[in-house]
Design brief:
Elements (H helix, E strand, L loop, with lengths): L5 E8 L3 H12 L2 E5 L5 E5 L9 E4 L6 E5 L3 H13 L4 E7 L2 E7 L5 E7 L10 E3 L6 H11 L2
Parallel strand pairs: 1-4, 5-8
Antiparallel strand pairs: 1-5, 2-3, 3-4, 6-7, 6-9, 7-8
Length: 149
């Protein structure tokens, strides 16, 4: 069983992610650190030295989620194996800029992300690249290096 290293971020549904981000910038002093094309998702933070982002606003309610961190890639791979063995549907496994992530739902269909922030974190703007967590750690790290060039 995975023991997370803490809550990483929350992604909330927003009708207008750009306007809502501007509100949080103005009222709470959060910094907008990224956004997707057409402003369908925005990423904000208050602790630049600790997190890439702590809050996200997404235009699609289907991808609203909360995220936890795994300490190592090995632990993330172990979680993937345990989820699949238990029959829990893994909705996605992917590289997101410098992290490797698993997405799955709890029994009430709340989307959960667990990710491992790699040594390559924060090198590029947000992007998504599928990855097979059944691969070895070495193979996953090579994919990470390739997509982060």
């Amino acid at each position: 069983m995975l023991t997370t290293t803490g809550l990483s971020h929350v992604a909330l549904h927003a009708k207008d992610p750009k306007s809502l981000s501007e509100f949080y910038n103005r009222v709470l002093g959060l910094e907008t650190v990224g956004y997707s094309p057409n402003w369908t998702a925005t990423f904000l933070r208050s602790r630049a030295s600790e997190e890439n982002h702590e809050l996200a606003f997404v235009a699609s309610a289907q991808i609203a989620h909360f995220a936890f961190k795994a300490a190592t890639l090995g632990e993330l791979k172990q979680l993937y194996a345990e989820l699949t063995a238990a029959g829990i549907i893994v909705r996605a496994t992917q590289i997101q800029a410098g992290s490797v992530a698993i997405f799955f739902a709890d029994p009430e269909d709340n989307l959960i992300e667990v990710h491992w922030p790699t040594p390559l974190a924060d090198r590029k703007p947000p992007f998504i690249h599928p990855v097979d967590l059944a691969k070895t750690e070495e193979e996953i790290m090579e994919i990470l290096r390739q997509v982060n060039q």
